[in-house]
Design a protein that fits this description.
Layout lengths: L7 H9 L7 H8 L14 E8 L6 H7 L7 E7 L15 E2 L10 E6 L7 H15 L4 E5 L3 H5 L3 E3 L2 H6 L19 H13 L4 E6 L1 H16 L5 E6 L17 H22 L3 E6 L6 H10 L3 E2 L2 H6 L4 H17 L5 E6 L7 H13 L5 H8 L3 H15 L1 H8 L3 H6 L17 H13 L3 H5 L6 E6 L10 H19 L5 E6 L9 E6 L4 E6 L2 E6 L10 H15 L15 H4 L4 H7 L12 E3 L9 H9 L5 E4 L2 E4 L16 H9 L2
Helix pairs in contact: 4-20, 9-10, 10-21, 12-18, 13-16, 15-16
């Protein structure tokens, strides 16, 4: 791409020169037509309803001071006057009809992919494009290339039907490329304003994670201050799963990535069981939260899964964590099971309290522009760099020095590498899995019973991260993202600014999903970044106190540790019955059962006759003993109830993830 300004013809020729071969699966995926919620199937009759004024997660006065033009905006719910009235929002928020209308004049909207890839990003853009053209064929969609830097440098291509159709339901972000630059400095904000003004944009849609959406809020505030007509809308994206809350049920990409990782993990489980001589240590995506690790553990039932939030809550040391791991490895070995699978979130080391203190100090001492970073960069030999840091730690804290010294030399060297864009250690580059393999091996040599058994420990490290970022999106993500794109168009067309698109009630059938938006400032709190208090979207960590997912994991992990309870999940399914292809993430299913009826809702798992009968938890318990109904409708498929109340599969239906999940989690 060009270094500055746009050149549509040159960039489109570059795209056409792509010689990637298309497979039959790729062709069929491009032809797949995502289902959309009934509410936005037709864009005529769209109405906006607004709730009361909102406030931020915390530090409301400070965030209001920083966002005077966009703070306190109401939540928005979108309905359609041509459809039957929907039930009220699950959070019992009172919505009133708004005077805002969807503009049907020709619009000019820009879109940018920000941050790391996540399956489904292209479908957000195709949903945005299709809705834009449905409102007015003369509307234009510009795609800024290379991430936020493309906006700053006014670098874009016009997205036409020919371009869009090549990327429908595909993985990756290669339509526009992505980047991790930010809309942060005054120069960047001024340049972005110049770009949207020169291109006469009515809106800019930022597709990204918590950081990117935070910068989208900054951009929205800046545009409002300068009275720009361009509105900024955010779309929730991250495979880490840490951009979710009571209003944003899940970020897109999480479902596809977890299913991809789970397939590879279950393959390792089968391999470990087959060879019976290797322990596989798998590092998974998740710097700040262990959501991916927990979800994959529930899907595959591995022997050990480290949950960073639990380690932090229990104030465990590295010694404590590895002792627990070695206990399991030894117990299995003495039972003749010298194999297993361990899942490790990439950010686990920063959840260990003593290591967290060390990492925070290093992030601060070696931040960009600091004298210590300049001094280290002048050193050539790694040993000299490590020696320099040891001297720093000796002066700062003996405990930090002791924790640094316990790490293998190659791990120490990794902690001194260039920081990421947030000024943090790039934990994905640190081979944490190798650290645990080495420590476990050392500890096992000191276990008398283990050594007497003549067992030889073999540890094999893996990192599953980039493997799941650009896969074909699951049907759930494809349809979720397409809906997010359509909603984004409506928000711009209604003149809303500083909002994040919202699609919810995801545990239900796609047709019954609901849509709306939340002000981005509503999701914010203040955190220390680069040594300064900074407004950011609050990350969602694993709830180790009240979370239903974690409770289920705790209930079963002791059995999974010593027995071979592996689940072989297989690859993502795109074709076949919807119960197999369209089931929502377990993360959504279990989370929603905390505050609505179990199992899930009468809309999803409901008796055929009478259709309106509700299903309560007590009803399900009674039916498990003596089923009152002969069949249930689940995601468009009728399943008969067999003895003990389990949902059975018809002869024409293969085993489904959805039914497996329900049968397992009912007990």
């Amino acid at each position: 791409f060009l270094s500055s300004n746009h050149s549509t013809a040159k960039q489109q020729r570059s795209m056409k020169s792509n010689k990637c071969a298309e497979t039959l699966v790729g062709k069929l995926r491009r032809e797949f037509e995502p289902r959309v919620p009934t509410l936005i199937e037709s864009l005529t009759g769209i109405e906006f309803n607004v709730g009361p004024q909102t406030s931020s997660v915390s530090e409301s006065k400070e965030i209001e001071r920083l966002f005077p033009n966009s703070y306190g905006q109401p939540m928005v719910d979108i309905t359609n006057r041509n459809q039957n009235p929907q039930s009220s929002d699950a959070h019992h928020i009172e919505f009133n009809k708004s005077s805002q209308n969807v503009c049907t004049n020709a619009l000019r909207i820009g879109v940018v992919l920000s941050g790391g890839q996540a399956p489904g990003g292209h479908n957000v853009i195709t949903g945005l494009f299709d809705a834009l053209k449905e409102l007015n064929q003369a509307s234009v969609l510009l795609g800024f290339t290379g991430g936020p830097k493309g906006v700053v440098m006014n670098r874009y291509i016009e997205l036409t039907t020919g371009v869009i159709d090549r990327y429908r339901n595909t993985g990756g972000f290669d339509m526009l490329k992505s980047g991790r630059e930010k809309f942060q400095t005054q120069l960047q904000l001024e340049a972005s304003l110049k770009t949207v003004t020169e291109n006469n944009l009515d809106g800019l849609v930022v597709i990204g994670g918590d950081g990117s959406n935070t910068y989208a809020a900054l951009l929205a505030e800046f545009f409002a201050q300068r009275q720009s007509k361009c509105k900024v809308i955010g779309v929730p994206k991250t495979i880490d799963g840490d951009l979710q809350n009571e209003y944003i049920e899940i970020s897109f990409g999480f479902d596809s990535a977890v299913k991809t990782f789970s397939e590879m993990i279950s393959n390792l489980c089968r391999d470990a069981l087959s060879a019976a001589k290797t322990w596989h240590f798998v590092k998974l995506m998740g710097r700040d939260a262990s959501q991916v690790t927990l979800e994959c553990a529930l899907q595959t039932r591995v022997n050990i899964a480290l949950i960073g939030e639990e380690i932090q809550s229990e104030k465990l040391l590295l010694h404590d964590v590895t002792e627990l791991m070695v206990d399991i490895i030894e117990e299995r070995a003495l039972k003749g099971k010298n194999y297993g699978v361990v899942l490790i979130p990439e950010g686990v080391i920063q959840f260990i309290p003593t290591m967290r203190v060390l990492i925070h100090y290093l992030n601060d001492a070696l931040k960009e522009g600091s004298e210590h970073l300049i001094s280290i960069e002048k050193l050539v030999e790694v040993s000299d760099k490590i020696k320099y840091v040891r001297e720093l730690l000796k002066k700062h804290s003996k405990s930090c020095l002791a924790n640094f010294d316990v790490l293998p030399r190659d791990i120490q060297a990794q902690l001194l590498l260039e920081r990421d864009t947030h000024g943090n250690i790039q934990l994905s580059q640190v081979p944490i899995e190798q650290l645990f393999i080495e420590i476990c091996e050392q500890k096992l040599r000191k276990r008398g019973k283990y050594m007497a058994s003549k067992t030889k420990f073999r540890g094999q490290g893996h990192f599953f991260g980039y493997d799941g970022r650009s896969c074909f999106p699951s049907n759930f993500d494809a349809q979720y993202c397409y809906s997010l794109g359509r909603v984004s168009t409506l928000l711009v067309a209604a003149g809303l600014n500083g909002y994040m698109a919202r699609v919810y009630d995801l545990e239900k059938d796609v047709k019954q999903w609901r849509v709306g938006a939340v002000p981005i400032t509503m999701l914010m709190n203040m955190e220390i970044r680069h040594g300064q208090p900074t407004p950011v979207i609050k990350k969602c960590l694993v709830d180790v106190d009240h979370g239903k997912k974690f409770a289920y994991f705790i209930k079963h992990r002791d059995e999974w540790a010593v027995e071979d309870c592996y689940r072989y999940v297989g690859p993502i399914q795109f074709f076949g019955p919807t119960g197999l292809t369209d089931c929502p993430p377990m993360n959504v299913l279990l989370k929603k059962t905390n505050d609505i009826k179990w199992p899930i809702d009468q809309v999803d798992v409901r008796p055929i006759q009478p259709a309106s009968q509700s299903v309560t938890k007590s009803d399900v318990t009674r039916k498990l003993v003596q089923p009152a109904q002969q069949s249930y409708l689940l995601w468009g498929i009728t399943f008969p109830v067999v003895p003990h109340g389990h949902l059975a599969l018809s002869q024409s239906t293969t085993s489904t993830c959805a039914v497996t999940i329900f049968n397992e989690f009912l007990y």
